[in-house]
Amino acid sequence: NGKFSTFTNSEGRKIYRLTSGVQVPEEVAEAIDTFSGFHGFPLMATMPKAVEKVQEDGKVNPPKFRSNYGVTAVEQSGKQNIQAIAQFQGQYVNASDLAAFCTKYDDGSECKIAKYVGKNEDHPVGLESMLDTEYITPLGKQQTWVYSYPNFDFCSDLTTFGSNVTGSVVHPYTISISYGSQKIDFCSSSIITRLSDDITKMGTMGVTVMISSGDDGSGGETRQGSNDGKLSPSFPASIPHAIAVGATYWVSGTEGEEQATTQFGSGGGFSYDFPVADYQTDVVAEYLKTVKLPNAKYANGRGSPDVSALGESFTVLVDGSAMPVGGTSASSPSFAALVTLLNEVCLKESGKSLGYANPLFYQNPDMFTDIVKGTNAIGDNEKAGWACTKGWDAATGLGVPDFPKMVAAVQKSCQGARK
Question: What is the pTM of this model?
Answer without folding.
Answer: 0.90
